Amino acid sequence: MSSDDFVEVALAADKNYIVGLIVTACSIAKSSSPDASVRFHILFSGFSEADKVDVRQKLISCKSNCEVLFYDVSKVDFSFLPLYASSRMTYARLILPRLLAETEFVIYTDVDTLWLDDISQLWKLRYEIPLIACPREQSEKTIDMEEEWFTSRGLRFNRDTYFCAGISFYNLSVIRESGIFDKVFEFGKKFDNFNCADQSMLYATIGEQVKLLPDRWQTFPKNGIPASNDHNVVLHYAGEAPWKVTFCTHMITDTQLLWFDVCANVFNESVWRSLRRFYSAFRIIKSRTLFVLLFKIWPTSIFGRFLLKCVGIRKFNESLRCRKRYLKGFIADGGGR
Questions:
Q1: In order of start, what are the domains of the chain with their CATH numbers?
Q2: pLDDT at 231 over 90
């Protein structure tokens, strides 16, 4: 099969994020069209041979017409760049033009995403990508922080063109020819204390050249899922990865349980077992009960939403009437549409 016959997809993770990588990749595989062949480029650090076998087997079980390639990037020197979420794997996407020397286009996705939409439909836009395409940034908090960081250093910033690089579409041929990523790395050496790591570096270097993708290709769960999306949605749990709890008041929301539904399906286990991979039984019960009380049951839900408005949080709506609606076709027949 020639390279033109594949949807090219890249993901990057170290050992700590391997479950997130598997769930993201398998959600892409199962939600893509049955006729679409997908080639997964897995950039990794710290994976064992058994880990690679496990990733490949799970992807092939989700989609027989896929190919899985691995790239060990553990020896690539990113030490001159700051840590981001206790890792430097986020910068691995910046070496994709070199790693995938024969590839013209690639879709990159963070491993805290859940794809319940057909990636082959996004792939059809590849010839409309002059350099890079990303969804717009949906977090006003992130935009505020970035605006402050850029303006305090005398750098330009336009809120209307700021993007989220967690899902990115790269025209690798043009990037290689232009050498633009060399300039991105030079910016990274010149400045530090980025709010958004390589996203900050990309925006500073080529922000005005990045094409914004339709909103269809990224939804932040905390902003709510538009009813018009039906079950075709790409959730990006930016800063709210379902498996990563950093504060005691964390709630297990409906959209996070949606991720655990998929995790359970991929690993052939119960949702409870998937939850127990990351949480104690006490924390599961406490976190889920807190969410249900504050957002699902009247009249306490009214009070919960009122409290959020009082503290300035106006976009938080992770309640779903029926989680299974979003998994329609995903579990039954692999999600092909």
A1: 3-217 (3.90.550.10), 239-333 (no CATH)
A2: no
